[in-house]
Amino acid sequence: MKIAVAGKGGSGKTTVSGTLARALARSGHSVLALDADANPMLGISLGVGPEETDRLLAVRQGVDAGETPHEPTTEGMVEAFGTRAPDGIRLVVASRIDSVAPGCQ
Length: 105
Prior knowledge:
Number of strands: 3
Oligomer: single chain
Distance between the termini: 22 Å
Helix content: 40-55%
């Protein structure tokens, strides 16, 4: 199952996404949460904390700057750009790419 949450700014997308991810994980589903927001705060909503959320963002920005190698597979992206969140959720931050040609994200 794949679920996307979209809407205008300030409409509660992060809150809904975090709540939905945790509810699904607690009911036994395997959950990979992908934060592709321009202001990635899903880590805060999921309970990984501001430091880990910032670390994930810095890793993604390292790819954009050419300082971190690109991961060509989904598994590699989850490993390199992800972290474990409470309730068994795996969180990946894939946002704030600033260069015009960062390669395949």
